[in-house]
Specification:
By secondary structure, the chain is an alpha/beta fold. Helix content is 31%, strand content 19%. It is elongated and about 60 Å long.
Length: 206
């Protein structure tokens, strides 16, 4: 028969054991990761490690971070990043992994089949992309009678007839902030056109 200490790992309090949850927070250079680190680190039963593509990060310097790690850049080296995640989690070191940016979130969710030990608090890939895709999200809001700014959707820039735009300024926003090509990330930008000429210039430059 196993001794109690062989079965449970944690802290003894009033004769009972409190299980410790070990969490890896990604994107340590981002303020969103700092907020997650502080929130999770406030739990006395949580051990928080932080990973960043930088050698030093604001989240890694937090008093709530027990260990600061450097990982490959998920945008410049996505495959190396995934291999690093797999190596860090394959021996069940972490109960949860928290990605804190759109890029790391999408990359992990779409790669979960190859990351058997990664447990992230996210919905399915299709659900995540429905929220990340602004066209789908705004269309859904409109269907649910949620008020949104007047919005026109185009599948391609060639479909836009600038002469039909009657008032300015207009916001030109891609459906996705980050686009995964299968091998690399493309970062898109939001533009404001204050005239037809500016709108035409924006569309012709992308």
């Amino acid at each position: 028969m196993f001794e109690e200490s062989e079965l449970l790992v944690g802290n003894r309090l009033n004769g009972s054991f409190i299980m410790t949850t070990t969490i890896l927070v990604l994107d340590g250079e981002q303020r969103s990761a700092l907020a997650v680190t502080r929130s999770l680190g406030n739990d006395p039963d949580a051990v928080v490690h932080v990973a960043s593509k930088l050698s030093e990060s604001i989240s890694g310097a937090s008093k709530y971070c027990s260990l600061s790690l450097q990982c490959p850049d998920e945008k410049k080296e996505p495959q190396l990043f995934l291999e690093w995640i797999n190596n860090k989690t394959k021996n069940n070191q972490y109960d949860y992994v928290f990605p804190c940016t759109e890029t790391t979130s999408q990359l992990l969710v779409m790669s979960l089949e190859n990351l058997p030990k990664v447990n992230i608090p996210f919905a399915s890939y299709n659900t995540v992309m429905q929220l990340a895709n602004k066209s789908q999200l705004m269309s859904l809001a409109s269907e649910l009678s949620i008020k949104i700014p007047e919005t026109i959707y185009y599948a391609d820039r060639g479909d836009v007839d600038c002469s039909l735009v009657k008032s300015y300024p207009v916001v030109v926003k891609p459906s996705l902030s980050q686009i995964w090509t299968g091998t690399e990330w493309i970062t898109t930008k939001v533009h404001i056109a204050r005239s037809q000429q500016q709108l035409e210039t924006i569309l012709n430059s992308h």
